[in-house]
Input
Amino acid sequence: MTDSTDTPGGTGDGPVLSTLANGLYVLECLAAGRSSVRHLSAELDMPRQTVYRVLKTLASLGWVELDRGDDTYCLTSKVWSIASRSFRLSDVRDTLAPVVRRLADMHGETVHLATYEQGQVTYIDKADGWHPIRSYTELGGTAPAYCVATGKMLLAVQPQGEIERVLRAPLEAHTPETVVDSAELRRQLAEARDQGYAVNRGEWREGVAGIAVPIVSGPTGDHVAIGFSGPRDRILGRIDELLAALQDAVAASPFMQHNHDPAGKEAR
Output
């Protein structure tokens, strides 16, 4: 049975997971400063045993840590790291939003802006093109990095340890075109890193292809990727044109720098 309850302070739109809610309440309290199990229990009107279990779980996940000197808990740097990254990516998205829209308007294909996290990409911005037949993705949606163009490009610029972690995991074939051989993927990632772009030839959604280039945020060094997506035959038939458009747009965009020579090598 799902552990849920109507939690005070909620929206009133239905039950929420009580374990999740309890964890968030504890994090909110600790944001004001370190605290003990006893004080958290009193402040949250929550049984001490429940508070203790929540804190043990949060500690195991790296969100809080125990000071054994006075038996108090405090937030770790993980909270600040995630909050900081969220703000940085918001700045990146806002800065590149006009570029994303302009590329879609000029070339008619769907454009995605994506970020990487633990083997997946998340689409933080997108703009649909004007072609009646186009690819469909949701803003905020995710995809396995190894089988989409933005994901391959972002995976290619990760530390070698992260690349190997992803390639050692089971790789699911989502279409007949999905590359699940780790040696071949390793070769493709090295090629993407060298040439400064990556191509998806229908490896995530059958009949849908893409091309993407990386972007490095000058002030922070964060990597994101921008790319076109659409029907396979159309995208692969325009690949040199679309690559040049991406490289030119990124090179000209304020606040960003492309991490590859815009002159680049010809797409293949």
Q: What stands out?
A: The two ends are 53 Å apart (CA to CA).
